[in-house]
Amino acid sequence: MKKMLFLALGIVLTASSIPVVADAATWHSSNIPSHLRGYWYARDNHSQGVHIYKHSIHYKGEKAVKVKWHYVGNHKYHFKYSHSQGFTISMHYYNHHKMTLNSYWHDYVR
């Protein structure tokens, strides 16, 4: 009886110690991470920039678009919007002062 109890306890402890990881492959419609949000100036043209809100991205001179995002790994994120026909916006976040986007100006600073 004690052996069965210890065996059951061991199985429960083993099963509960398996880490649960977030699925990075899913697209999120929740808030864009706070460290990415704010206004980013184009490094080579400070009159241009991009504003990243909680749920949308707004390039200066264009309409804001609601996006879904997903973390790719190594500080890289992808964004997509409903009318993009499969096109994704790629972002590489270096630190709170620098990031790159696959857009015309490419390098952005705060």
Summarize the structure.
This protein is mainly β and 110 residues long.
- Rg, alpha carbons: 21 Å
* Continuous helix count: 1
How are helices and strands ordered from N to C?
HEEEEEEEE
The mean pLDDT is: 84
Pairing-aware structural class of the strands and helices?
Answer: mainly beta
Strand order of the largest sheet: 1-2-3-4-5-6-7-8
List segments where confidence is low: pLDDT < 50 over at least 5 consecutive residues: none
Number of strands: 8
Percent of residues in β-strands: 35-45%
Distance between the termini: 66 Å
Please outline the major beta sheet: 8 strands, antiparallel, barrel
The proportion of residues forming helix, as a percent range, comes to: 10-25%
Assembly form of the protein: single chain
Globally, the shape reads globular
Structural key phrases:
single chain, mainly beta
Topology:
Blueprint (H helix, E strand, L loop, with lengths): L1 H15 L21 E5 L2 E8 L3 E4 L5 E9 L2 E6 L7 E7 L2 E4 L5 E3 L1
Antiparallel strand pairs: 1-2, 1-8, 2-3, 3-4, 4-5, 5-6, 6-7, 7-8
Protein architecture, described:
Helix content is 14%, strand content 42%. It has one helix at 2-16; strands at residues 38-42, 45-52, 56-59, 65-73, 76-81, 89-95, 98-101, 107-109. It has one helix and eight strands; from the N terminus they run αββββββββ. A hairpin with a 2-residue loop joins β6 (89-95) and β7 (98-101). The longest helix is centred in the N-terminal third of the chain and has 15 residues, at 2-16. With 110 residues, it is mostly beta strands. An eight-stranded antiparallel barrel has the order 1-2-3-4-5-6-7-8.
